[in-house]
């Protein structure tokens, strides 16, 4: 390696290292050069790791949100494995938008408007919000609840979806309450569980609480629905060594969503 560095210094006419009896350290020019070319070497290293990883691991690495995995994906996984026995999914969870140049991920399911740069996105389903609660809360009103009646109960908030309650209330013409200490939970998964346990009313993405609504552990508090111009998307890189498997995953997801829509 030292020979190659010496050749590079001779070629460029620049000294990159101070060499003495105490060791080797970068010169000022060497530090500037490293700062400029370092990111390129990082990308080369990442590409090499991804290439060697794909040779060793035939799993299709899918990154999703924890709530999406627990409330939508997991209960459908048996069907996917039955239909696509040769596609082995490895599920990972994260919140930030995927960066395929830095992460060893083949696909991601993300929430937003679908306009992320440098990726391909396939719309799965939209953002539909409704207030949900344990059915035991409703008899206390003595009548059919109106949207504004949510203010008579504790509102359960999700940290990662902190805009949901304000947006829903605004769409219903209700001023948000001045909560000095709102009941805030880390994610929607815990918020839905808290509502199911009778701790208050949660604002839910209807797709994420299908099982609870079917079993009766959760019910809609009122008829008011908020639909926003956002949704869940399957996000993939422009090029992938797993194009065939990604196409089958995409087709299966769209089929599952279409089936639910026909049954609704």
UniProtKB/TrEMBL annotation:
Protein name, entry field: LysR family transcriptional regulator
Family to which the UniProt record says this protein belongs: Belongs to the LysR transcriptional regulatory family.
Gene Ontology BP terms: DNA-templated transcription
Keyword Transcription regulation: yes
InterPro entries named in the record: LysR-type_TF_proteobact-type, LysR_HTH_N, LysR_subst-bd, WH-like_DNA-bd_sf, WH_DNA-bd_sf
Domain HTH lysR-type: 1-27
Organism field: Thauera phenylacetica B4P
UniProt cross-references to PROSITE patterns, sorted A to Z: HTH_LYSR
The keyword DNA-binding appears for this protein: yes
PANTHER family in alphabetical order: HTH-TYPE TRANSCRIPTIONAL REGULATOR, HTH-TYPE TRANSCRIPTIONAL REGULATOR TRPI
Top-level taxon of origin: Bacteria
One protein family per Pfam: LysR_substrate
């Amino acid at each position: 390696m030292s020979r190659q560095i010496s050749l590079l210094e001779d070629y460029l006419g620049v000294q990159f290292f101070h060499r003495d009896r105490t060791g080797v350290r970068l010169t000022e020019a060497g530090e500037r050069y490293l700062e400029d070319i370092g990111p390129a070497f990082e990308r080369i290293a990442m590409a090499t790791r991804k290439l060697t990883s794909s040779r060793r691991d035939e799993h299709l690495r899918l990154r999703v949100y924890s709530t999406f995995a627990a409330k939508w994906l997991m209960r459908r996984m048996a069907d996917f494995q039955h239909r696509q026995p040769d596609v082995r999914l490895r599920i990972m969870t994260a919140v930030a938008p995927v960066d395929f140049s830095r992460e060893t991920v083949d696909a991601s399911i993300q929430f937003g408007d679908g306009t992320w740069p440098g990726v391909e996105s396939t719309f799965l389903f939209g953002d539909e919000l409704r207030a949900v609660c344990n059915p035991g809360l409703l008899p206390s009103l003595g009548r059919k609840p109106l949207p504004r009646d949510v203010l008579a109960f504790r509102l359960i908030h999700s940290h990662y979806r902190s805009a949901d309650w304000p947006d829903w209330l605004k769409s219903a013409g209700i001023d948000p309450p001045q909560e000095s200490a709102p009941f805030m939970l880390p994610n929607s998964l815990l918020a839905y569980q808290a509502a199911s346990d009778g701790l208050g009313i949660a604002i839910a993405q209807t797709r994420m609480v299908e099982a609870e609504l079917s079993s009766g552990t959760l019910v809609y508090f009122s008829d008011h629905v908020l639909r926003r111009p956002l949704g869940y998307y399957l996000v993939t890189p422009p090029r992938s060594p797993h194009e065939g498997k990604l196409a089958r995953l995409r087709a299966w997801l769209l089929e599952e969503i279409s089936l639910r829509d026909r049954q609704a």
